[in-house]
Amino acid sequence: MDIQTIRKDFPILDQQVNGHQLVYLDNAATSQKPTSVIQTMVDYYERYNSNVHRGVHTLGTLATDRYEEAREKIRRFIHAKSDKEIIYTTGTTQSLNLIAYGYGLARLGEGDEIVISPMEHHANLIPWQQVAQKTGAVLRYFPMEEDGTLALEKVRETISNKTKIVSVTEVSNVLGTVNPVKDIAKIAHECGAIMIVDGAQSTPHMPVDVQALDADFFAFSGHKMLGPTGIGILYGKQELLEAMEPIETGGEMIDEVGFQSATWAELPWKLEAGTPHIAGAIGLGAAIDYLQQIGMDQIQSYEESLTDKAYELLSQIDGVTLYGPGKRSGLVSFNINGVHPHDVSTALDSEGIAVRAGHHCAQPLMSCLKCESTVRASFYFYNSEDEIEALAKGIKETKEFFGHVV
Amino acid sequence: MLFNNLDQLYRSVIMDHYKKPRNRGELNGNHCVTVKMNNPSCGDKIQVSLEIENHKVKNVKYLGSGCAISQSSASMMTEAIKGLDVDQIHQLTFDFSEMVQGRAHNDDLDLGDAEALHGVSQYPARIKCATLAWKAVEKALRTADQDLNHE
What we know:
- The complex is a heterodimer.
- By secondary structure, chain A is of the alpha/beta class.
- Chain A folds into two domains: 3-26 and 296-404, Aspartate Aminotransferase, domain 1; 49-293, Type I PLP-dependent aspartate aminotransferase-like (Major domain) (Aspartate Aminotransferase, domain 2), CATH 3.40.640.
- Chain A contains 14 helices and 17 strands.
- The longest helix of chain A is centred in the first third of the chain and has 21 residues, at 58-78.
- The termini of chain A are far apart.
- Chain B has one domain (3-149): Sufe protein. Chain: A.
- In chain B, strand 2 (44-53) and strand 3 form a beta hairpin.
- The interface between A and B is medium-sized, with 23 and 26 residues.
- Chain B: It comes from Sporolactobacillus terrae.
- Chain B: It holds the Pfam family NifU_N.
């Protein structure tokens, strides 16, 4: 992988922020977009902007073709069996809410159990709290090891025949932990539960095969994988999606409408009411083209080397606490002792380094880590080793700055 | 030089309040009111207690956790408002909010050390850290208005 050539495809990276070369290390929040994705969306708006699945005119046909081609690209990218299993949503949050309300609500009752992990993003936590409150189901958590991993034997002890739904993130957005979702799915299925995987932090960084995982549902967002915001995917096994009632109804999702009732279109359209984010879907297709041109295996192994380097450099700095396991996906969460994460983030920003500070939409996890917030540097394949060194240098300088300013 | 301009934000008086907070604690009693406020986006937490008698804040204490800006601001706020009349405090919280947003403000009233936070206006992402404690005071005054006056 030639990083310098790759970086030229991302116009935003070539700029000064606060008088310094931008070092963008907030990729777990959102990724940057290559010219090919931006241009694909501009082309749609400039040349064939039309609604999909409606008119028979030329532009409408072109828009529909590109929109459905993107769905097919996404299907191949995550190795789903059929296009019918790929539902466009606004992002992971909507995908998970669709499962919770469209699948969970009607099927859960008093005493049933939903099991999630303590490292879930609020998007894979609050919908289950809500559904549990509405149905009388019990929300349970897998115990987490001290290094921020899940132990399979404890997973096995937590799941029982009362468990109806297991929902786990493949990669933690705070710790970078890569969870054994395939093994968890097997245990869930043995007990008759369905397995939901939050793929928001994994899909951009590693090969995904929903059939090999045997996930019943899988959710991810476009904007964390070079695509635009406002587009995401809900994958579901066809028989499960067929059984779901739409929670949104209206245009584009119907078969036949009478004065008093209506019937639904086939999958996937049954679950896609209203005019979708057409440019977003086509842009996500272009993002997948870009990722595949580089190769997800290459991306994964390059990010692994970046992350190892970051972990090594940061763990050498006295007074820096790192969170999460040694083996992890492309991010590091840390604190500088005695300096609040927001102050660290402001200091790094003044050197052009963009990182995230806060609870990362994972407040229960923060209480497990016994801290209120962390600083998180998260990487993508366009980050360079020099940028990792700039981060380590910035952290050392921040430590000195706050050590001396009294 | 490292961190050009950063010391304009983290002035030494600010770091002094952060590391040696004034008026930390809680007030309980007949004329006391305590409120809590969070910054949900970043997790800063503030609890402010006021002791109000004859339309005056006789005493004030705070507890909290968060960044240097939010916590020093709380400490400075307690010094600025102690002993003031409720109407003066409303004016002061308004002036402070205008100042950290970089807008012209009335300087008839003395913000004390909190004046040092004017540099926050150059850091838009941090304005809400600076204003948290002052919003908590407003909330405490509203609560006091409802609770203490209608006993």
